[in-house]
Design brief:
Shape: flat
Strand content: 5-15%
Number of strands: 30
Radius of gyration: 47 Å
Distance between the termini: 52 Å
Structural class: alpha+beta
Strand order of the largest sheet: 24-23-25-26-27-30
Helix content: 40-55%
Length: 1891
């Protein structure tokens, strides 16, 4: 190594002689100790210098990066070793020096002892699992690490677990952020008192070494940063960071040593003196100089200036009073981001450049350039942060800086530094490629700093935090402004943000905005903001950038070619950048004392709005066909008004502007409401789907209370203060339906197509209804609002708890009190809804826990207005109405089709009383009158909905009639206006009775009205009584509105721009399109009251149907019982209105009676009412549909007939029931099958076989049986592990390998069954099809390109009839039912003859009706299905022979398939046959067909008669000795054979179909063997004394009768026979090893023998049931044995059952019992000569397996999660990304983990093959979801853990505590055992072995 430059910074060269580098290395510890000692002296100058020199040498910054930087520096550095080595060396030195000669680890421990751990402060990065408790949190961002959370007590709190997105830090112990009650045990103790003081010498070295070390790090960072022309490439930065990894990690470790070390680091990092000395770049050190230059270049290139010292640094002194923030600088910057030219002191207003707007001049003229462009670093901390930002926040650096935060002094210093760099952070963020990652890291830091109110306040006061934030945000947005095209495109001066820019599209602004929202949540900070006028002006300026963004222009000709998706960016920006800060500010304006703040905001808001109207050149007409949904300024204004009235008791009028401004204010929100109606009427369809998306987002739950609610409220305010006639006419004009409101039957609409008229009219009326009945901001309390919102959501649909939380617009600011999940939420929920627990649908779909409205909510609170306001999809309104209708029908309250109910509203707040004047203005009355008339006359384009709204408005008017008007006199006051001729006054009550005689209308010449003569002259005299008789009314809404506007404008004496006005009005008339209109006069002679009564007749379809109720019952008028809430339809609504009208005025009552007395004039010639027409239409439609259906069916039938080639009997296929295999009557010769593809019926024949649709699957369910009843638990600690050696599969494996060790292989393979693991299970849906039809069906599936959930190439398909999943076809064996009846007749042969028959039949190969030699279709199919069965399972589950490919293997496999299916059926029946009856699958068993296939194949292998076990069972063999001697490996002794296997072998070797006699014979013979086995096993289990006792008892009974049927005699005989061998010889002294200590009583022996035999008898009975169709009888568990025995014919029929049942009585020996037994025992004795232990083990077969179960899961999901989510993978020892655990055997696996991949199979797939032969059930730990793997497919099954509200929490997004749902787990287990995953779960997909 080259010696480093040795110049010390100050003083002479140290006196110590130069050691060579290697010498140093050897002696680090000594040097360190020496230096420490030198430094401890009082005069430590020499020591200090010596240390300096050493550090200079060791920490020279040149070497390590030389290699990285390359080029000339490498040469300058003079080579040096590998960079890594030098760094290592340096670190070693530092560790040594810090420890002062001791060991570094001991040093660490020593420092840790002085840690006053009052705060946790654990820092985590993204994806870490943390907790948040809302009950304990003061700040909404509070979070805890898992350890602190579990150590604290949070029972009953509102907490959740979450995966950190940006990273965070634990707040435990910080009382600024959380309540102390929530601290964990470790951090509760205020421990500063009892921690001893840190000894001076412990950290002395650190104070010397660390400054140099950090400086060295900074030099590295400077070196590594090469500022190229463009942005430095990521790669270079990462390279530097990788090299620095060890250094930063070293610092990070230091921070973890606790408080003592942190305070040293804080000193070092904040000490300005140190920094100045080391980094100034003065002095003779070339290296340092160069480094300083690089630093200056970096500063410059970042667009920052380095202020000289003489400049007063702006950051240091906050100016008094208003902030020094002048907006000119930034607002003046032309829309690009660049340096603001400082010479540009004042911008002229006239300049037209992009982004120039009216300047805001502030009191102080000084430019505060410093915020954006000046940075001066005074300490290590500041420069470190600078580089951290420059390198885009490397994770390690962030963690280091955050780890220091528990040190209070550091926290303050760091926060100030962070604020000082804020502008620089923004610039870097904007340039960054990885803005997402960087955003997360920024927030990771800032949330720790700004959540703390004390700190935020301090920084706000000392460092102008608010000024900086607002300026930086403004500056950031200025870089993406474009000219607004709203209103006046050419001359607009307004600029808006461009939503297409990356800045908005990628939410890059998010970290800065979120910081701003965070600090505004602190009262003290928000106060300053609201008091500072300059800030408010700037902020409104910022908000106005969003006003009118994302403008939509309606496409009128062709479809827009590119649908922009920027709209979501716009909504997100308004919500986050404008609305959230607004809610933050509002939360501090809750009390009277804060009135001033509201006045300030409102004042600057109005100024900004005025500027905006000027900038877009707005006068009075909005430009047509364009809409923007973004009006944040309007919404700020509205929300502050609402707050002022609701909480601050401000007088509303004092904060409202003049009338002209109000008129302007209402235009744009109204335009949005009209556009919503247009969008829903499909008028914007050419703009693509995105415009619908905008309309939905605008009302969607997260946005509605920041968008549509303020808009409607603002319109309500305007309506309450403006002239009502003006407002109403504006509404109809905006909605473009003015032309529709004419009495004439035809009209010309110049602005709207006819097909849109109806829905636009409905839109306008609905809007008026909402405007007049919504009380959200007009007097409802918070709880009432919450209740109304909740009722509306629940009425649309039943909801889960979490979706309710999500759908109810919470007040977005977290401190507002109504927190979701808070007390009020839960209490309101329980008041309005009932909980429906999660249940299962029969289809297997799982329901979540739902809330459904209580009956009284439907009865009294269902509010259609609220529902309409809150629905995102129009279908939800319909859904709510349907549910309401259903409720009324069910509760018997109203049978018909009800209308939306009328609901009384909360009283209005006095400030808004003016709103009700809308209901009492002539314009509205004319509209209502016109519409009623049109509906009555059946004009087109009017719907029931229109009528409903009209009646609703009339009723609202009656409810809210002004009281002061005296009842009888018509008030005539005020100046007369042009349409006063219609109605005398403005009160609805009196206007209702006013008759209108003639109306002059403008109609097209084609209209029918023109043809009639005008009756004016003739009938005018008859109506002389009314004052306006002669004149006909004509009325134009538009003219009316123009006039009003003119008046107001003139009144407010502003110069009305006469130039603009004509242009504005001309926009509406369509150029020359309309045909000429002529004027006609219509005779009307109706009043609103008379129209209503006629309407009643029309609706009820009867003449004179209305009869005033008070004529019968005068009480009604005196004590009217008008309910708050009324159900009913149109007729009841009309009756209600007439009653209310009569109640309110005697005149009305009289007139109603008069009208009713007159004979009702005939209704215009329209015979059928609308409602009836509907029903008639329905009937007609139904009739037509029926006819169509019949035609189709007939056609189908004829097609089917022609399809049949053969002339068979055509049975009509019964399509309703699943086609079961029909059991035919005896006279039918053959079984008939229906093919579900071609629909023909017929028998299965050799050349055209029929087959059953089957699903073959490998199964290891049987292998999972254990012998203990206790189910195994899922391991949740390291100690609990599950070992598989007690499973059925393991036990059978051990047995087979034991047999194979000592006996002949071919014989072993006949002595057991396999298939416990990987056995093939066959199941069917019971439908049959021709095999040739099936082949063509498969072809068609193969050509069908639709993505199915299964793979046709693997032979998979779905049953054509019931769509059940299947993968093979099992041929039905052609056979007749008659034969089977013959076969079952008992013959009277003796058992000896039968035994002979059986032997002969087995010996005859291929004795089959089908001769195998001729290849028929049937035999081919049988072969192919056999191949399928073999391929279903893996090779390892088929090959158990020692010689691969031996025929014995296939033989074993085939009879084991039969065994597997029988055993599984037994398990499905619950493990016994007590319940009896047919099989659980009904007629769906395919065992019969399966047996035929297996038997056919088994007979191809004839067993050599020598070795046929049948002979051993039924004959005595003489020359025993000779045969045993000559073979090298003996055969398996018959007593070691598995009897059930023998049964299957015997039966499958017989020709099919089988004689019942032969079957019984085989069973009888095998039972004798089984019984002997039981006795032998029992004898081994007994103790020596027991054995001799039993031997004795048996000997005594030997002379009695029925010796062969007495178990005592037989047992004693077995014992004496086996005693001849060595079987009973105990090894050593294990007296009671096998034997149980209890003595065996006769009862317990009998029970043992029965239990031993039962499994065999159950399987045999099942087999008999399937082969011969005999029913199983049900019984008690105690008598199962005897019932089965008699069922199998083992018991003689005359058997009496009085005395206790003895199993031995079933024995029927074909050969003398004692002879055959001694023959059997002899084989065993000869084996136990050598192998006593094994002989014993093989005799005792414990066949009492319990039912298989999945593992038992813990109650609470957290226990699983905490253990497994941190558990490491056994292969790579990392924590897997997606851990999973097998629910069958508890194995921990990595889902999709590449570390565990073997030959392209990922671990889960591999495990599913090994553990479940292709079926795996895994619980995904991080998602709480269960996933099923079945072969090559997988599906998400759902979760068995639900939260307290009965919902799943997939992916643990909500993080609420989850509890096991036992019912669901039961269902899962049931599906596993019954192998029905494929049928019940619908959504399968291929996993390509990647799970």
């Amino acid at each position: 190594m080259a010696a480093p430059a040795a110049a010390a910074v100050g003083g002479p060269q140290p006196p110590q002689p130069e050691l060579s580098a290697s010498g140093l290395a050897l002696d680090k510890a000594a040097t360190a100790a020496h230096l420490k000692e030198a430094l401890s002296r009082p005069d430590n100058r020499a020591g200090a210098e010596e240390l300096q020199a050493l550090l200079e040498r060791v920490l020279s910054a040149e070497r390590p990066l030389a290699a990285a930087a390359g080029g000339e520096e490498a040469a300058a550095a003079g080579g040096g070793g590998s960079p890594g080595a030098a760094e290592e060396e340096a670190l070693e030195w530092c560790k040594c020096l810090l420890a002062g000669g001791g060991g570094y680890d001991e040093f660490c421990a020593a420092v840790r002892a002085y840690d006053p751990a009052a705060l946790c402060g654990l820092v985590w990065t993204a994806n870490f699992v943390a907790y948040r408790c809302r009950t304990c949190g003061i700040s909404p961002c509070m979070s805890l690490c898992a350890e602190c959370f579990h150590q604290g007590d949070h029972t009953g709190h509102d907490f959740n677990m979450f995966r950190s997105q940006a990273g965070g830090a634990c707040d435990c112990g910080d009382s600024n952020v959380m309540r102390e009650s929530g601290f964990c045990k470790r951090h509760q103790i205020k421990s500063s008192s009892n921690i001893p003081c840190v000894p001076k010498d412990l950290l002395m070295m650190s104070e010397f070494v660390l400054p140099r070390f950090i400086f060295c790090l900074i030099q590295y960072l400077r070196e590594g940063y090469n500022e190229p022309a463009d942005v430095p490439s990521e790669k270079d930065l990462n390279k530097v960071l990788q090299l620095l990894e060890p250094q930063i990690s070293f610092l990070e470790d230091l921070t973890k040593m606790g408080g003592a070390m942190r305070s040293v680091l804080t000193q070092v990092l904040t000490n300005q003196q140190n920094y100045k000395e080391l980094t100034s770049g003065l002095g003779e050190n070339a290296c340092a100089k160069k480094s300083h230059e690089k630093y200056l270049i970096a500063l410059k290139s970042s667009g920052l200036t380095y202020p000289e010292d003489k400049l007063v640094y702006g950051m240091q002194e906050p100016s008094a009073g208003t902030s020094t923030l002048a907006v000119q600088g930034f607002a003046g910057a032309t829309g690009t981001l660049g340096q603001v030219d400082s010479s540009d002191e004042e911008d002229q207003d006239g300049s037209q450049g992009l982004g120039k707007r009216k300047r805001v001049k502030l009191s102080s003229g000084t430019k505060d350039q410093s915020i954006m462009d000046v940075l001066k670093h005074k300490s290590f901390l500041e420069e470190l942060l600078f580089w951290t930002i420059k390198y885009e926040f490397p994770q390690k650096m962030v963690t280091f800086l955050l780890n220091m935060l528990p040190d209070q002094e550091y926290k303050v210093a760091f926060t100030k530094t962070f604020v000082q760099h804020y502008a620089f952070i923004m610039k870097t963020l904007k340039k960054s490629h990885e803005s997402d990652t960087m955003s997360n890291r920024i927030v990771h830091i800032s949330v720790q700093l700004f959540s703390n109110e004390e700190l935020a306040r301090q920084v706000t006061e000392e460092c102008q935090l608010l000024d900086i934030m607002v300026t930086v945000l403004l500056y950031m947005m200025e870089s993406c402004l474009i000219k607004s095209e709203l209103q006046d495109e050419e001359n607009s001066l307004h600029v808006v943000v461009n939503c297409g820019e990356a800045l908005l599209k990628n939410n890059t602004y998010w970290p800065l905005v979120s910081d701003f929202i965070n600090i505004l949540s602190h009262q003290s900070v928000a106060k300053r903001f609201l008091e500072d006028h300059g800030l408010l002006v700037t902020w409104m300026n910022f908000v106005s950038f969003f006003q009118g963004m994302n403008l939509n222009k309606r496409e009128l000709n062709e479809h827009v070619e590119f649908e922009s998706q920027t709209y979501y960016a716009a909504f997100a920006a308004e919500l986050e950048a404008c609305a959230q800060p607004m809610w933050g500010l509002l939360s501090h304006c809750k009390v009277r004392e804060t009135q001033e703040y509201t006045r300030n905001v409102v004042r600057y808001c109005l100024e900004a709005l005025q500027d905006w109207f000027d900038a877009i050149n707005f006068v009075d007409e909005p430009a047509p066909n364009q809409v923007t949904f973004h009006l944040p300024l309007h919404r700020y204004y509205a929300m502050f008004l609402s707050k002022a009235v609701k909480c601050q008791e401000l007088d509303l009028d004092s904060v409202l502007p003049d009338q002209e401004m109000l008129m302007k204010l209402m235009i744009h929100p109204l335009q949005i409401q009209a556009s919503l109606a247009e969008i829903h009427s499909n008028m914007w369809v050419r703009n693509g789907l995105q415009i619908k998306g905008q309309a939905m987002t605008y009302v969607q739950s997260h946005f509605c209370n920041s968008m549509i609610d303020p808009d409607i409220y603002l319109l309500q305010v305007c309506a309450s203060r403006l002239d009502p006639d003006y407002f109403i006419s504006s509404v109809f004009e905006r909605f473009k339906v003015v032309d529709l409101l004419t009495m004439a039957s035809q009209h010309q609409n110049t602005v709207l197509d006819a097909e849109h008229e109806r829905s636009m009219l409905e839109g306008a009326l609905t809007f008026l209804v909402i405007l007049l009945s919504l009380r959200l901001h007009l007097g409802m309390s918070d709880d009432e609002i919450l209740r109304a919102e909740m009722v509306a959501q629940l009425c649309m649909n039943d909801r889960t708890h979490s979706s309710l939380l999500d759908l109810i617009p919470e007040n977005p600011n977290p401190k507002s009190g109504i927190i979701p999940g808070s007390y009020s939420f839960e209490s309101v929920l329980s008041a309005v809804a009932d909980f429906k627990a999660p249940v299962f649908e029969p289809g297997g779909s799982m329901q979540q826990g739902m809330y459904t409205p209580k009956a009284e909510v439907w009865d009294q609170e269902f509010d259609p207005v609220m529902v309409i306001l809150r629905t995102v999809y129009r279908r939800d309104v319909q859904s709510a109405m349907d549910r309401y209708t259903a409720f009324l029908k069910q509760s018997g309250k109203f049978p018909g089709n009800p209308w939306p109910p009328y609901k009384k509203r909360t009283p209005l707040h006095p400030s808004y009383k003016g709103l009700m004047r809308l209901l009492h203005c002539k314009t509205l009355h004319i509209v209502l009158f016109t519409l009623l008339y049109k509906i009555l006359m059946d004009h087109q384009n009017l719907s029931e909905h229109v009528l409903c709204m009209v009646l609703y408005l009339i009723e609202l008017g009656l409810e809210n009639s002004p009281e002061e008007e005296s009842d009888e006199e018509a008030s005539v006051g005020g100046p007369e206006r042009c349409h006063d001729s219609w109605f005398p006054g403005s009160n609805l009550v009196s206007n209702m009775r006013h008759f209108i005689n003639y109306v002059r209308v403008k109609v097209p010449e084609t209209a029918p009205e023109v043809k009639r003569d005008s009756p004016a002259s003739t009938s005018s005299d008859s109506l002389g009584s009314l004052q306006n008789s002669g004149t006909a009314q004509v009325f134009s809404l538009v003219a009316e509105r123009r006039k009003k506007f003119q008046e107001i404008i003139n009144r407010s004496s502003s110069e009305a721009d006469q130039v603009v006005r004509p242009k504005a009005s001309s926009k509406w008339s369509a150029p020359g399109s309309a045909p000429p209109l002529t004027t006609a006069i219509l005779e009307i002679k109706e009043s609103i009251l008379s129209l209503l009564i006629k309407l009643h007749h029309k609706l009820s379809g009867k003449q004179n149907s209305y009869y005033p109720p008070w004529l019968d019952d005068i009480e009604i008028l005196i004590q009217p019982e008008i309910p708050k809430y009324s159900h009913g339809d149109g007729i009841t609504a009309v009756e209600r209105i007439l009653l209310k009208a009569a109640l309110q005025s005697r005149m009305n009552k009289r007139i109603i009676e008069e009208i009713c007395r007159k004979v009702t004039p005939p209704v215009p010639p329209k015979k059928i009412t609308a409602a009836e027409k509907k029903t008639l239409d329905k009937e007609e439609r139904r009739q037509k549909a029926r006819e169509r259906q019949q035609k189709l069916l007939a056609e189908f039938a004829s097609r089917q007939k022609s399809f049949m080639e053969t002339a068979m009997d055509v049975d009509s296929p019964e399509t309703d029931i699943p086609m079961e295999i029909t059991t035919a009557e005896p006279q039918v010769s053959e079984t008939v099958y229906d093919c579900v593809i071609c629909g023909q019926s017929g028998p299965s024949s050799e050349d055209r076989p029929t087959g059953l649709v089957v699903l073959l699957q490998a199964s290891s369910v049987l292998g999972q049986c254990r012998d203990s009843t206790e189910p195994k638990k899922l391991p949740i600690t390291e100690e609990e592990q599950i070992y598989p050696w007690d499973t059925c599969a393991a036990v059978h494996d051990v047995r087979l390998s034991l047999l194979q060790r000592y006996f002949k292989d071919s014989s072993c393979l006949l002595a057991v069954s396999i298939g416990w693991e990987g056995g093939v299970y066959v199941q069917t849906c019971g439908h049959t099809l021709h095999i040739d039809c099936h082949k063509s069906y498969m072809e068609s599936l193969r050509n069908d390109q639709v993505l199915q959930g299964f793979s046709v190439d693997k032979g998979e398909f779905t049953c054509p009839l019931c769509r059940q999943f299947a993968n093979s076809v099992l041929p039905c064996y052609p056979g007749s039912n008659v034969e089977s009846n013959l076969w079952q007749r008992p013959s009277n042969k003796s058992i000896q003859d039968l035994i002979k028959d059986v032997e002969d039949l087995q010996g005859r190969p291929g004795a089959f009706p089908v001769s195998i030699s001729s290849e028929t279709n049937l035999s081919k199919e049988m072969e192919s299905v056999m191949k399928d069965i073999k391929n279903t399972t893996q090779k390892k589950y088929r090959d158990y022979s020692k010689t691969p490919g031996s025929p014995d293997n296939d033989f074993l496999f085939m009879y084991s398939v039969a065994r597997t299916n029988l055993e599984l059926e037994l398990i499905h029946r619950g493990g016994n046959l007590c319940s009896g009856g047919a099989s659980t699958a009904g007629k769906r068993s395919c065992l019969n067909q399966l047996f035929h296939v297996l038997a056919l194949h088994m007979r191809l292998y004839s067993i050599d008669s020598e070795y046929n076990p049948w002979r051993k069972l039924t004959q005595l063999i003489e020359e025993m000795n000779s045969r045993l001697g000559n073979e090298e490996q003996p055969e398996v002794p018959i007593l070691y054979h598995d009897v059930t296997s023998l049964l299957l072998i015997q039966i499958l070797m017989m020709p099919q179909p089988l004689h019942k006699d032969h079957f019984t014979c085989i069973v009888k013979v095998l039972f004798t063997l089984l019984y002997t086995q039981a006795l032998a096993a029992l004898s081994v289990k007994c103790s020596e004394e027991d054995r001799s006792a039993w031997k004795h008892v048996g000997a005594l009974k030997k002379n009695t009768c029925e010796v062969e049927k007495s178990y005592e005699v037989l047992l004693s005989f077995v014992i004496s026979e086996l005693s001849k061998g060595k079987l009973y010889h105990e090894e050593g002294t294990q007296e009671c090893a096998m034997g149980s200590p209890i003595a065996w009583s006769p009862e317990s022996i009998e029970k043992y023998l029965q239990d031993f035999c039962l499994p065999f008898m159950r399987i045999t009975s099942l087999l008999q049931h399937h082969l011969f169709g005999e029913d199983l009888s049900s019984c008690q568990e105690e008598e199962e044995f005897s019932v089965l025995a008699s069922c199998l014919g083992l018991l003689p029929t005359f058997y009496q059952t009085e005395h206790p049942f003895i199993s031995a009585s079933c024995l029927d020996w074909s050969v003398p019992a004692f002879d055959i037994i001694s023959q059997w025992c002899f084989e065993i004795n000869s084996f136990t000569e050598q192998h006593t232990e094994q002989g014993k083990a093989l005799l005792i077969q414990d066949s009492r397996w319990k039912l298989p179960h999945l593992l038992q899961l813990p109650e609470n999901y957290n226990t699983i999660f905490q253990y497994y989510h941190r558990k490491t993978c056994s292969v790579c020892t990392k924590v897997p990304k997606d851990p999973a655990v097998c629910l069958v055997c508890g194995t921990f696996v990595c889902l999709k983990g590449l570390c565990c991949k073997q030959q392209s199979y990922c671990e889960c797939v591999l495990h599913s093959q090994n553990c479940g032969a292709g079926t795996g059930i895994f619980l995904l730990i991080n998602a709480s979801v269960i996933i099923i793997i079945r072969g090559h497919r997988f599906c998400l099954w759902g979760s068995v853990y639900l939260d307290a509200h009965g919902e799943e929490d997939r992916d643990l997004r909500r993080g609420k505590p989850l509890y096991i749902c036992k019912e669901r787990y039961k269902v899962l287990e049931q599906q596993w055992i019954s192998h029905t995953f494929d049928h019940i779960n619908k959504r399968w997909g291929p996993h390509y072995n990647g799970l």
